[in-house]
Write a structure and sequence with these properties.
The structure is a single chain. Helices cover 41% and strands 22% of the residues. It has helices at 15-29, 48-55, 69-80, 94-105, 119-128, 145-148, and strands at 2-8, 33-40, 60-64, 87-89, 109-114, 139-142. A six-stranded parallel β-sheet has the order 3-2-1-4-5-6, with helices on both faces. Helix 3 crosses helix 4 (94-105). The relative contact order is 0.15.
């Protein structure tokens, strides 16, 4: 199973990115084929997290984030072309959550991740889990039992 996770950069040291550095190797050890979709306004700048994953042999796709969400969504979808993963995980990127709609319509399973209990993730739930059906994800995962109860 090919699973694409969004990685934001350059050099954003935060929980979701560190989570990827830890979990992608675990998923590969379990037989999955995880990869990263690197999202950045400056995709040519060096990024420590992207480099770490690349050295470990993970496939890295790149999407340039733009000034407007609509342009970023197009870039994210275009990063996959006709070579779609089985599962797409937008991680914590709003443009990637919006891109999920179009990947889901193309047959890709889309899974959101709740990384914390703050207004940002409550908004993710409101729009992409409980909101307009067009924008709903296939499913959602949480990093703790507490968050799963939200």
């Amino acid at each position: 199973m090919r699973i694409a996770f969004c990685l934001n950069g350059p050099n954003e040291v935060n929980g979701p990115n560190v989570w990827l550095l830890r979990h992608l190797p675990l998923l590969r050890a379990l037989g999955a084929q995880p990869e990263a979709c690197y999202l950045s306004t400056e995709p040519d700048r060096p990024c420590a997290q992207r480099a770490t994953l690349a050295v470990q042999g993970f496939r890295i796709r790149t999407a340039r984030l733009a000034r407007f969400t609509e342009e970023s969504v197009q870039s994210i979808v275009a990063a996959f072309g006709d070579d779609l993963p089985d599962v797409f995980v937008p991680n914590y990127s709003v443009p990637a959550y919006f891109a999920s709609r179009f990947l889901r319509e193309a047959g890709v399973v889309t899974i959101g991740v709740l990384h914390s209990d703050d207004p940002y993730y409550h908004d993710i739930l409101d729009v992409f889990v409980a909101g307009d059906e067009r924008w709903r994800l296939s499913g959602v995962a949480a990093v703790s039992d507490y968050l799963m109860g939200l």
